[in-house]
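Why do we bother with holo predictions? Because pocket geometry can differ from the apo form. Keep that in mind while you read this record for NAP.
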Amino acid sequence: QMDCWVLSALCWTLPVCFLLHCLCFMFADADFTLLRASLLGGRPEKKLKGLVVWVTGASSGIGEELAYQLAGCGSRLILSARREDELRRVKRRCLERSDLKDEDVLVLPLDLLDRTSHEGKTKAALQHFGHIDVLINNGGRSQRSLCLETRLEVYQAVMELNFLGTVSVTKCVLPHMTGRGSGSIVTISSVVGLAGVPLSTGYSASKHALQGFFNSLRPELTDYPNLVISTVCPGPVQSQIVHNAFTEELHKSIETVGSQEHKMPTSRCARLILVGVANGVKEMWISQQPFLLFYYLWQYTPTLAWFITNLLGSKRVHNFKAGLDADSAYFTKQKTS
Ligand SMILES: NC(=O)c1ccc[n+]([C@@H]2O[C@H](COP(=O)([O-])OP(=O)(O)OC[C@H]3O[C@@H](n4cnc5c(N)ncnc54)[C@H](OP(=O)(O)O)[C@@H]3O)[C@@H](O)[C@H]2O)c1
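The structure, written out:
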C-alpha cells in the first residue's frame, strides 16, 4: 500500500518539478546555482560591506557599474584602468551614490600591458588600505575579425592583455591573500571562454586560457579554504566592448558597432556578479535567453552545440563580410535579396 502511494506521488511530482524547472529556465538570466544564491543566499549589501575591492577596467562598462554597486554596498574601492580622468569621474559618482568618504576610494591608474608596474601598484593599494579582500579582474578587450585576415600581432596583443595582464596582477595579489589566508579573486571571462564563436578566435582563446588558468589555480589553493577563485562568464552585456574591440590589424578601429538593445543591461550583470562574489560561487554563467541555453548545450551536448554554432556562425560571418552588424545574425530575421 505504502509503495504504491510513494510511486504515484513520484509519478506526478517528478513531471511537475521538471515542468517548473523548464518554465524557470525560459525566464532565467543566469545558471541555477547563481539564481539560487540570488534568491536564498547572502545579500551583497551585507557580505561585501567594508571589504576592500580592487576592480580593474573600472573606467567603463561592467567595471564601472561594479564600482557603483560596490560603493552602494559600502565596499571600499581601488579603481584601475588606463584613463585616469574616467576613473576620477567614476570615483565622483561612487561618492555621490554612497556614504563612502574620499579616502575610501583609491584611483590607481594601471595598464594591464605594463606588467613591470603591477608589483608597485599592488604595494600602493596595500599601503593605502592595509589589505585587499577581493580582486576583480575585469579589464580587457574583445576582438572582431576573421582568422584568415587577422595578423599574428593582434593575437599576441589579445593574449598579452586579457591573459598575461590578468595573470600578472593576480600573481602580485595572491601572495598577500595566501599570507592572510583569505580573499577572493574574481575573473570576468566570457561565454566565449566556454564556447567558440566566429570572428573572435583570439578573444575566445584568451578567455579559454583564463578559464584553464583559474580552474587549475583553484585546486592548488585547497590549503586555503577561505580563498575563493571565481570565474564569471557573461553573454552579451551593454558596454563599450564592441567599440573597443581589436580588429584584423593592431591599430585599426572597428567599423560597425551595432545595436545594444538585445544585450543584458549592465546593472543586472553587475548585480549577479556581486551576488556570486558574496556567496563564493565559483563559476557564474550570466546571460539572457537564448544564450543561456547555448551554455548548457556546450556543456552537456557539445555535438548539438557545434551544429547550432556552425548554423548561426555562418550567418554571422556573412553579415560581417557584408559590412552589417554581425550580432544581428542572432537577433533579427535576415533580409533576403
Ligand atoms: N560586454 C560584454 O558583452 C562582455 C561579455 C563577456 C565578457 N565581457 C568581459 O567583461 C570585461 C569588461 O568589459 P566591458 O564589456 O565592460 O567593456 P568596456 O566597456 O570596453 O570596458 C573595458 C575596460 O577595460 C579597460 N582596459 C582596456 N585595456 C586596458 C589596459 N591595457 N589596461 C588596463 N585596463 C584596460 C578599459 O579601460 P581603459 O580604456 O581606461 O584602460 C575599460 O575600463 C572584459 O574582460 C570583457 O572581456 C564583456
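The chain has one domain: 29-329.
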